[in-house]
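User: I'll paste a sequence; please echo it back and then give the predicted structure.

Assistant: Echoing your sequence first, then the prediction.
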Amino acid sequence: MAKLGKRTTAAREAFAGKENMTVEEAVALIKGNANAKFDETIEIAMNLGIDPRHADQMVRGVVGLPNGTGKDVRVAVFARGPKADEATAAGADVVGAEDLMEIVQGGKIDFDRCIATPDMMPVVGRLGKVLGPRNLMPNPKVGTVTMDVAAAVKAAKGGEVQFKAEKGGVVHAGVGKASFDEAKLVENIRAFVGAVAKAKPAGAKGAYMTKIALSSTMGPGVTVAVDNAVTE
């Protein structure tokens, strides 16, 4: 069995026996032990009482985190003519039509968010097998298929986070950086949890949120009391 390093051992000891904490307590604990050589991402994972294989139990949505994510989001936009110009002016990193489709088909995907105007969807649709598994496929339900490409680009760059239940009913996302103030992280976490709560599908039965855990990129996780994380 591999010997654990001093940092890992210390972190595990600090987290031992800690569970069902308040959001504030969990954030303080995680920030206090996020001592990697880079600015770690604070991550949330939520176990939901759903079966995403059923359409009426699927959970997906988007939320603008009040304090941003701390991440430099690269945005690609499928658009032509004036809309392509609008996307570029708004700060999109990659803009194109069939030419961009060919780049993506060739395996080059150097963006984190993909936006498209409605008229481009027949082109983008050919990339379903490439973009779908990466959760990059534009979707009108989360505002990434739109004629207002400028607003969509600015939202993506400004801290908007998409979420989608994966197999097993787990939703996860980055909600800030370890360098953020505790209060800002708490605000972001509550905003994310609130958005997932509002996205409860009609087909969900029984307990909807069954477990919420927080962690940093390199640190252990800690569970948060669901009733504390959910606010009206």
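The radius of gyration is 19 Å. The longest strand covers residues 41-48.
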